[in-house]
Amino acid sequence: MREGTSKVIYRADYQPPAFWIDTVELVFDLDPAKTRVLNRMRVRRNPDVMPQPLRLDGEELNLARVLVGGQGTSFKMEEGQLVLENLPEGNEPFELEIFTTCAPAKNTKLMGLYVSNDSFFTQCEAEGFRRITYFLDRPDVMASYTVTLRADKRKYPVLLSNGNLVAQGDLEDGRHYAKWVDPFRKPSYLFALVAGQLVCREQRISARSGRDHLLQVYVRPGDLDKTEHAMNSLMASVAWDEARFGLELDLERFMIVATSDFNMGAMENKGLNIFNTKYVLANQATATDTDYGNIESVVGHEYFHNWTGNRVTCRDWFQLSLKEGLTVFRDQEFSQDLAGDVSARAVKRIEDVRVLRTAQFPEDAGPMAHPVRPDQYLEINNFYTVTVYEKGAEVVRMMQALVGREGFAKGLSLYFQRHDGHAVTCDDFAQAIAEANPDSQLAQRLEQFRRWYSQAGTPRVRVQTHFDAVSGIYSLTLTQSCGATPGQPDKQPFVIPIALGLLDAEGRELTSGMHVLTQAAETLTFPGYSAEPVPSLLRGFSAPVILEYDYSDRQLLTLLANDTDPFNRWEAAQRLATGRALTYIRGDLPVELDAPYVEAMRTVLRHPALDAAFKELVLTLPAETYIAEQLDVVDPQRIHAVREAMRQQLSQALYADWEWAYEAHKDSGAYRPDPVSSGRRALAGLALAHLCLAARTSGDNVWPGKAYQRFKDASNMTDRFNALAALVISGHELAAQALQRFHAMFRNEPLVLDKWFALQAGAPDRNGNVLPVVKQLMQHPDFNIRNPNRARSVIFSYCSANPGGFHRADAAGYVYWSERVMELDAINPQVAARLARALDRWKKLAEPLRGAAREAIARVAAKPDLSNDVREVVTRALAD
Ligand code: TRP
Ligand code: ZN
């Protein structure tokens, strides 16, 4: 049944294409059951490559006709490819015409052309275009596209594709057409079409150059009132890229279209971005502050791809981080710049680092570990990872640290000067940044720096300090190492920029700067101190490493109270909490938070100068997955129990402070998703959660009652959802009533229902009560496993985001997982493979969980007919 290859692809095997495709004319007759696709290409041999047959990729296509120069020709099928041997010799272009049909309504993989809510959408990255027509479906083949769409006018009034609309009109039988020309050459993965009943919000803008542009956000009728924020985000993105990097919008028209069936977040198709509704639709009644923030960054991300990804694209898919790491870096900078002041920027940085450490570090330590520029894959979809995206962004961030902000902007200009309109490599990028800054540490150590692209694994930097009271010399010895990862037993030293400062005992800053660590071990000396300073290391998280230093509590409390670097203030609190959690987890002592820790938390909570958003981050304990990574043997239930006990004690010990915090922050004025008011809502939400938690032991129902009232009266989704979550998470009896009410209120809002499902599937486990709830939720009439957002809201919320509930001693969580992986694989392998990763870290689990997890993975691996996607994940999980 499966087409295409089941072969591992190696980066080292890259060969340029044997043919170029200069132009493509596509004509679509759109029909859900049978869409007809006429594809006329101008093809020529690549003179740099030995003459060979033309092999075109195709998948799940029905081939009706192949013409070369208007004449029939012989062809054969080999490994799913269409192979043409009798082609004109010489280097002159020739015309190749291919006529195929496909069945969009049956396309549950959501790759290629598919139907969602009676509209047509495409998703071509990475290898979806081959599901639309036979093609050289690889990013280094760039062509000019002309696209004609024909469809029933009543059912599909809106017909969109990349570029500019050049013609439209009516046809016979109630059909109509639209013809689009994309002025830019592009790889096939950036092709897109949309057809359906859609409405749009429009905005005209003029760029600095005076050029006018039309911005459009398309949604289903009824959703227009949820498009303002996406449009604002898009306008801000256009302005930011001009201001920060001098990069202008190069199209007359830029469109965003939202669909509720989408495998990922969004897609940067040239001029026609297609988005998961989750990253477009928002109003205060249905979306939380987090949603607003995510929309801003995803809209930015896709828009920024227009230059970093589309104008300059990837030579091959191993270079994915060339566009993704760079574009994540750009969207992170965008959100920081929009946030404004130092504190709000730090909040964004902390959130980004939290993602890196809770998701990417485990990936880098597990069976799927791979370099930012991978060396091999079975299925490229499996490499749209936090390593390629988030660690890739950190690598770009380090480059900026090494060449400076201005130097980096200069480097980016050189990159576009050299490579605009081409498909290039990660090396080309690093080379441009370095060469634009010849005197920088990056240029001087470029070859060594490139190890960040080639070596997987998270480096550890161990720090030892020494103070000689007699000479007054303070010294720091830095030692770096990196553990083995699959296929890479030994690692060479990295170039690690380490921003640091020294504080005196009163917390005053003595000195600060950046050290670039390049050797396996180096010692820094600071002369002239009368007393031992307190080191503030890796400020701003200046490199994606694990920094090991045996901080004393006293040092951490000094940093928490005084450091000029807000990131390290937060980090000090995380270390205080992590250290305590690990002690309780390892020992048999009951969880009993000490007074100095509690007092430090109280001081932060009551601090007159700190921002609410920052306080909320400091008062939030490290995630269970983060704590798990600090342990060699993991008992998720124990971690959960300890963390919950710590939370419970913080609730009680700071009861009056939480009351104050709630009352002082609960009113944030008319709803605006800005950093200040969203920070107030976040802190009020945390306070309410703690107050309801405290009611668990006290039995006092006042705060749960207030939470219920808040839940009913809230004027925005953030406050309403926080109140609901406070009830659900504390396990209060009012939760059931609130959940029922919430569902009734939002029964027609799919994105809100996703939250409703996710909250229940992710709720703290009490005596194994979550799995039965999850199974019940799957029976709910609103559940639909074919919709990725909904599947994620139930299945992933349980398997990936609820370790305490998932890792059951009776292995029932694992059995459920294996069943869902196999069920999903038959529908949508990409989504199934993501779920398969939930057991990535099984080898760290304590027995009997470890054995049970292994068995569950083996059960999946033994299934015949697995997709490449899932097979790659489970095979690597079982490998030793
Ligand atoms: N290029 C997209 C982004 O990061 C990623 C993406 C969207 C994607 N949809 C996909 C990747 C489907 C693979 C498959 O912005
Ligand atoms: Zn991207």
From TrEMBL:
EC number: 3.4.11.2
Chain ranges of the Aminopeptidase N-like N-terminal domain: 75-190
Keyword Metal-binding applies: yes
Domain Peptidase M1 membrane alanine aminopeptidase: 230-440
Reaction(s) this enzyme catalyzes, per UniProt: Release of an N-terminal amino acid, Xaa-|-Yaa- from a peptide, amide or arylamide. Xaa is preferably Ala, but may be most amino acids including Pro (slow action). When a terminal hydrophobic residue is followed by a prolyl residue, the two may be released as an intact Xaa-Pro dipeptide
SUPFAM superfamilies the UniProt entry points to: Leukotriene A4 hydrolase N-terminal domain, Metalloproteases ('zincins'), catalytic domain
Enzyme category, top tier: hydrolase
Domain Peptidase M1 alanyl aminopeptidase Ig-like fold: 457-550
A GO molecular function held by the record: alanyl aminopeptidase activity
A family per Pfam: DUF3458_C
Biological processes, Gene Ontology terms: proteolysis
Gene3D superfamilies: 2.60.40.1840, 3.30.2010.30, Neutral Protease Domain 2, Peptidase M1, alanyl aminopeptidase, C-terminal domain, tricorn interacting facor f3 domain
Requisite cofactors: Zn(2+)
InterPro entries recorded: Aminopeptidase_N-like_N (IPR045357), Aminopeptidase_N-like_N_sf (IPR042097), PepN_Ig-like_sf (IPR038438), Peptidase_M1 (IPR001930), Peptidase_M1_dom (IPR014782), Peptidase_M1_pepN (IPR012779), Peptidase_M1_pepN_C (IPR024601), Peptidase_M1_pepN_C_sf (IPR037144)
Alphabetically ordered keywords of this record: Aminopeptidase, Hydrolase, Metal-binding, Metalloprotease, Protease, Zinc
Domain Peptidase M1 alanyl aminopeptidase C-terminal: 553-879
Classification via CDD domains: M1_APN (cd09600)
NCBIfam families in the cross-refs: pepN_proteo (TIGR02414)
Protein family according to the UniProt entry: Belongs to the peptidase M1 family.
Matching PANTHER family: PUROMYCIN-SENSITIVE AMINOPEPTIDASE (PTHR46322:SF1)
Functional summary from the UniProt entry: Aminopeptidase N is involved in the degradation of intracellular peptides generated by protein breakdown during normal growth as well as in response to nutrient starvation.
Name this polypeptide is given: Aminopeptidase N
Gene for this chain: pepN
